[in-house]
Amino acid sequence: MIAQLTGTVLEKGDGFAVVDVNGVGYRVFLSDLALQALAPRGERATVRTFTHVSQDAIHLIGFAGEDEERVFHALVEVKGVGPRAALKILSGIAPRDLALAVSRGEVAKLTKVPGVGKKTAERLVVELKDKLQPLARAEAPGRPEKAAGGGAIEQLSQALLGLGYRPQQAEQAADALRDRAEGRPLDELLREALKLLRG
């Protein structure tokens, strides 16, 4: 089983990246958030991976950080949620936000995530509430929202934490975008924050 790759990012595609490790190109499937967090083409990167073996293929699945990896493994244990569905879910919601929604039983919020219907959302709450409780509790204290766009900035900060960035890095990147956050979608803010963090 391949648990980690370190090499040069050769290519980024729709839901995957190719990482060159000593002349061998490994195709790694990633969530949209993890793909955005990955280093640009031509730069070196380290990616934690999970080797998924099915009847007709062997796939490498990569993660942006420990939180995403932990949530992915919890998701695939849920009946009816395979690796592809888990990646689709993680493309639509940050790991910590998912853990918090599950712990609070927010079925309506979960159904807004691509690939999650009402039955699946209810199943996630029932089967993952205890498993994701530690991650949800780690996020729960929160900080008071500040100024305009505070809610979006808080979500952005949590999304960056979920991708493996340190609290100080997440806070600085989020604060840098605070004045431009109001009314903008989270994925757009996240892309801009990732550019800032890469310098």
TrEMBL record:
Coiled-coil annotated residue ranges, if any: none
Which residues does the annotated region (Domain III) include? 152-199
Which InterPro entries did the record assign?
DNA_helicase_Holl-junc_RuvA_I (IPR013849), Hlx-hairpin-Hlx_DNA-bd_motif (IPR003583), NA-bd_OB-fold (IPR012340), RuvA (IPR000085), RuvA_2-like (IPR010994), RuvA_C (IPR011114), RuvA_C_sf (IPR036267)
Which stretches make up the Helix-hairpin-helix DNA-binding motif class domain? 73-92, 108-127
Q: Which Pfam families match?
A: HHH_5, RuvA_C, RuvA_N
Location(s), subcellular = Cytoplasm
Q: What are the entry keywords?
A: ATP-binding, Cytoplasm, DNA damage, DNA recombination, DNA repair, DNA-binding, Helicase, Hydrolase, Nucleotide-binding
An MF annotation (GO) of this entry = helicase activity
Q: What SUPFAM superfamilies does the record point to?
A: DNA helicase RuvA subunit, C-terminal domain, Nucleic acid-binding proteins, RuvA domain 2-like
Q: Which superkingdom is the protein from?
A: Bacteria
Q: Where is this region: Domain I?
A: 1-64
HAMAP family named in the record: DNA_HJ_migration_RuvA
Its assembly, as annotated, is: Homotetramer. Forms an RuvA(8)-RuvB(12)-Holliday junction (HJ) complex. HJ DNA is sandwiched between 2 RuvA tetramers; dsDNA enters through RuvA and exits via RuvB. An RuvB hexamer assembles on each DNA strand where it exits the tetramer. Each RuvB hexamer is contacted by two RuvA subunits (via domain III) on 2 adjacent RuvB subunits; this complex drives branch migration. In the full resolvosome a probable DNA-RuvA(4)-RuvB(12)-RuvC(2) complex forms which resolves the HJ.
Domain notes from UniProt: Has three domains with a flexible linker between the domains II and III and assumes an 'L' shape. Domain III is highly mobile and contacts RuvB.
Q: In UniProt terms, what function does this protein have?
A: The RuvA-RuvB-RuvC complex processes Holliday junction (HJ) DNA during genetic recombination and DNA repair, while the RuvA-RuvB complex plays an important role in the rescue of blocked DNA replication forks via replication fork reversal (RFR). RuvA specifically binds to HJ cruciform DNA, conferring on it an open structure. The RuvB hexamer acts as an ATP-dependent pump, pulling dsDNA into and through the RuvAB complex. HJ branch migration allows RuvC to scan DNA until it finds its consensus sequence, where it cleaves and resolves the cruciform DNA.
Family to which the UniProt record says this protein belongs = Belongs to the RuvA family.
What is the protein's given name? Holliday junction branch migration complex subunit RuvA
Q: Which organism is it from?
A: Anaeromyxobacter paludicola
